[in-house]
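Take a careful look at the sequence and tokenised backbone pasted below. I need to know what the token row says about the fold.
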Amino acid sequence: MMFRLGDAVISDGTIDPWGSNDAIDYAKLLADFGIEPLSTVRASLGGSSRLARRGVWFGHRDLGLILNAAKNGQDFAVMSGIKPSSPFHLGTKTTTEAMSYFQSISKKCRVHYCIADIEAYCDNGLKFSQSGVYAVDNVADALALGLEPDRTYVYRQSQEIRVANLSAIFSRGVTASMMRAIYGERQFGLYMSALVQAGDILLPELRKFGGPKPVLVPVGADQDPHIRLARDLAFKFREQFGFVPPSAVFHKIVRGLDGSPKMSKRSSATTLTFSDDDGQIRTKLMSAVTGGRATTDEQRKMGGEPDKCVIYEYYRDHFLESDTHLREVREECLTGKRLCGECKLELVNLVLDYAREHRRKKAANWDKATQLVEAASKPDHDSSEIF
């Protein structure tokens, strides 16, 4: 079952991993930046992942390396994280589901989960002491979404000295013009945070963590600049560390409730978060942009446009597990049998059921999340492997 990726444009040849991009043309992204379409590895993934099956994952870099490691019982890592500046929303849900999926297909997979407090400071001005407030909340969400704590290393960027030291080493492999070519003109603190993120991505490849070994980074399409930088640095410092260039799997950007190209933490009114209560969920979804026609009569006569509809996107990418039911939703929309109001109400009920179960799981994992964040807040100064 395949779905369209949508229409879009990359504005100026660069992608902004810190802000709100124009809508991204995924076909152009594949062509211009050398990302491989997911179709090249789809057979190896099978139909077990909703993200792959429905085109939420649209491209990759060297994902075959990870799938071969899983097939052959070899060690590999999945690396991701969260900027601890706000509650989980649907974009962070997609990334966490990917981590959980790859952890589930192999007992040899270990997740490295970064609490990106340095990036939160550089991008949002959030003090390290403030980051801890969201860190426990975010980790509890991740555990509720299926992340296995016994095979997950949680750390804070500001406390993992190996990440800081790797970023210092990597600074010798870049120039200002190179950073501008990847990221555009930025305040220098964001260039520094990008080098820190390269340290995050390559951290699992140190001997301390059983490396060198393949590392997969699941990200939204807007995060590809970080992947390209890390891969380039892996090549430049391969002789010193034995790095394997990191792999990536890319998911589509989640649109805002108002139809904007990217659901943003900076706009609570257009973002569906995991801290929203039942009333907020209902109000936000009932106000969301649809692909419906101007009148009921037009809808009945012409049918709706599900590929333009935020509500259908949320059904497809997040909350409706049954492929059969999803096909029915789409067909009923296209033929005019389904009206937007009733479609929204059905989704509201799905999301409310999901949110209530998620809250239950999150509460059950709160103490474990607290323990993980407390452990992550204790610095580890062993950097003998690096210097």
Notes: Strands lie at 36-37, 57-61, 76-82, 109-115, 152-156, 215-220, 247-251. The longest strand covers residues 76-82. The chain is about 50% helix and 10% strand.
